[in-house]
Amino acid sequence: MTKTIQTTCPYCGVGCGISVKADEAQHHLKVSGDTAHPANFGRLCSKGSALGETIELKGRLLQPKVYGRETNWAEALDLVADSFTSTLKKYGPDAVAIYGSGQLLTEDYYVANKLMKGFIGSGNMDTNSRLCMSSSVAGHKRAFGSDTVPGCYADFEQAEMIVLIGSNAAWCHPVSFQRIRAAKEANPSLKIVVIDPRRTVSCDIADLHLPLASGSDAVLFNGLLHFLSEKNALDSAYILAHTEGFEAALSTANIDSEQVAALCGLNKDDVQRFYQWFASHDKVVSLYSQGINQSSSGTDKVNAIINCHLATGRIGKPGMGPFSLTGQPNAMGGREVGGLSHQLAAHMDFSNADDIDRVARFWGAQNIAQKPGYPAVELFDAIYDGKIKAVWIMGTNPVVSLPNADKVKHALQRCEFVVVSDCIENTDTTALAHVLLPAQGWSEKDGTVTNSERRISRQRALFQPAGSAKPDWWIITQVARRMGFEQAFHYQSPVEIFREHAALSGFENDGTRDFDLSAFADITQQDYEQLQPTQWPVNQAYPQGRARLFDDGRFFTQSGKAQFIAVTPRPPVNRPDQDYPLILNTGRLRDQWHTMTRTAIAAKLNQHKPEPFVELHPLDAQSYGLVANSLAMIESRLGSMLARVQITDSQLPGNLFVPMHWTGQYASRGRMGALVNPIVDPISKQPESKHTPARIKAYQPSWQGFILSCRELTINEPEYWVKIKGEHFYRYEVAGLSLPDNWQDWAKKSLCDNESATPQWQEYQDPGLGNYRAARFMGNRLESVVFIAKESMLPERNWLSGLFTKAELDKAERMALLTGRPPVGIADVGILVCACFNVGEKTIQAAIREKGLKTHQEVGLCLKAGTNCGSCVPEIKALLYKG
Ligand SMILES: Nc1nc2c(c(=O)[nH]1)N[C@H]1C(S)=C(S)[C@@H](COP(=O)(O)OP(=O)(O)OC[C@H]3O[C@@H](n4cnc5c(=O)[nH]c(N)nc54)[C@H](O)[C@@H]3O)O[C@H]1N2
Ligand SMILES: Nc1nc2c(c(=O)[nH]1)N[C@H]1C(S)=C(S)[C@@H](COP(=O)(O)OP(=O)(O)OC[C@H]3O[C@@H](n4cnc5c(=O)[nH]c(N)nc54)[C@H](O)[C@@H]3O)O[C@H]1N2
Ligand code: SF4
Ligand SMILES: [Mo]
Fold this sequence. Notes:
The protein is an alpha/beta fold. The chain is built from 29 helices and 36 strands.
């Protein structure tokens, strides 16, 4: 029987509502955008649309495991509770830690934090949000006295100017970006400025792109403050009535456009154009993300941006404001419950003794922590140094995502007791766990998340859990009870936790704290089931929630006034030098989510960018002797990786960009975290993940090739391999340093593990050219193909991949097979461009040519490409441009 359920996407902080038709018996679901959800009004991006393909049971962690052995919950929970208790008795509470994640639901997060800070009595609960939002949190606190995102998505439609700073929203917040694109199409005078060293696809709708030197944003925004003052574009009445510290901030920002242009590596006219537009448009929204946060001066950069909004009084009103885009589905929920190690709960923190006392009374916690714990990078250093002896990692993959990731790996290898809760069995982090706890994933779990605009939405269970998987809140409370804290962790269901969380937010609040859900303190089970997406605060004054804060000019500082922060720009701490002359920048791709544990299961999400790659400028490619599509080794002082070279003038000379996604599960040498320097911002402790000195050189294997197979294979011989799941096939890109003695033996060994039936082989060899090609059949059905040749001689993979969908190959296809090219008259669709409707590059090119298509809308009408999530529109436009 099929049921329709409204839930929320588990990926990015846009927080799109999803309407799901779930068929429990078939374990099948059909997703579409929830037209009533105010975050997306029915739109979804490629990742959200592909959720139905990620729910398979293969690869899931289905049973608890202790020391590699499957066991029942009772044994696993007892072991975790006993080990934590004995560690804290022997070494004190600071010898244990929890490292959580914005993938957790608010209810899960709340109990994890309560256990560590309230009852174990240590501040050592931190989260991957430290790598993500902590500079924004710190900047907000300094300016507003609270961690508040003042605006809402509706401001995008009302703005006259939108500035994207260090944000590639086209790929990372695609549905918000589509809203901005639609606003621009409806109102072409809406100005869009993108500030990013790279020319990203977000520039597709930009009137101006400022490719500033990596790390120089504080100079640019200080210059803007100075300019606003020089041009009398300040709102002096607002500054006087509602702010403090303006004079100091202005005098520190004493820099003119010419100096700004020189320091940021920009054209002076472009800088002035940006400044002039900012000065002359009242309704400006400044959206910023990791290009700002992930910096050794991220907090200052956040404040440099906020300063310009305070100076013009542009905050809290429709169509204007600084707007930190949150990354994870529940990054905001994590901040609400106090998931960062310096926070306590409900937007209270350790800096205030009254807060500690208040939370202790509310929780009935005798033993509450009195001081902050370690932030993420220091936390793993403390594990490495043996100060922390037991750690519980929940919903994050630090062996990939933390900087200096090889050290993180060693830290976990040295740690006495490592517990990991995850829904996936094999990750780079689960590999190092002593205890593995199977968590329910999206589609099974039930609770709430909060998106970038403070909107709380429900994630609802669609299916029975996989195997013995349990909700994270249940796992945590079971351990808490076994540690002797039954009373404080008596919950039977998520609503009970939500009520307590809401009650704590209102406890002795009286308007002193921004985060207030007191209207939900007594929410019934039924109302919780039916909860509609609502923006906090939700209290007596705002029973239906509140779209914007600070519209009244009142802030949560002591004086009630917003604070300007005097910012002295600092360059990144580690700068390129003679040995490591390049800047390594890292970030995201359109169709992958972080460490790929879920998106790489969906075949269609692997086609857009199938392999780890490095982008660099043509001049650098020339200096380092790198050829397009060849392999390169990238090294920093900490580690190295291999990636495919992509040469593009969208990079600034001297800069490298690599995607953050590949792990040891999908590539032999693609884990970029191993290179990233663990430099952090002194205030927020957020790592500088966008700036590591690096070098690059050609990697010259003796041979290269690829394998396509209808089955998953164990490829462990070559130095370089990448695994790509496709529709009915697996693709392996391979390269090796030493030549095997005999290609035939190599191929048979690679492809025929555990085979009893005798396959048929078709082979072609040209040893002189280093070519080997083979295909393996069962009857007329293609099982696998191997192509070994010089990189430039290898055929494209698309047509060959498509043959795996066929029950049998016809004669012409069999004849053509080892040429790698389709028989005459059969079209190759090319690289996938539109992941929503499976439309390839060559199909689009052919339609443009043959039907004379001129615009992306015409391509959409003809092929549907680009008409769902719209993330591929920039690529379609590039194909139109090329003709
Ligand atoms: N497809 C996809 N979407 C995602 C995610 C994902 O994994 N995949 N993850 C989600 C999460 S958790 C997050 S935090 C967000 C992140 O969303 P974004 O912050 O938009 O993503 P990034 O690609 O990390 O970085 C953004 C840009 O910062 C630029 N940058 C680097 N250095 C500088 C600098 O010095 N100044 C400026 N101005 N820019 C700089 C980079 O070139 C990059 O284009 O995305 C969320 N959405
Ligand atoms: N160099 C560099 N490093 C970065 C970044 C960068 O831009 N550059 N970005 C940083 C940022 S912003 C972020 S947010 C991090 C992200 O980095 P991670 O948090 O390490 O990445 P994810 O792949 O999201 O990890 C989530 C894990 O939780 C599991 N999981 C999913 N749902 C659940 C659940 O409900 N319960 C449990 N228990 N487990 C679940 C997934 O299978 C996966 O293993 O990376 C950071 N690291
Ligand atoms: S934009 Fe995409 S990934 Fe983000 S919440 Fe919406 S559908 Fe999910
Ligand atoms: Mo993030």
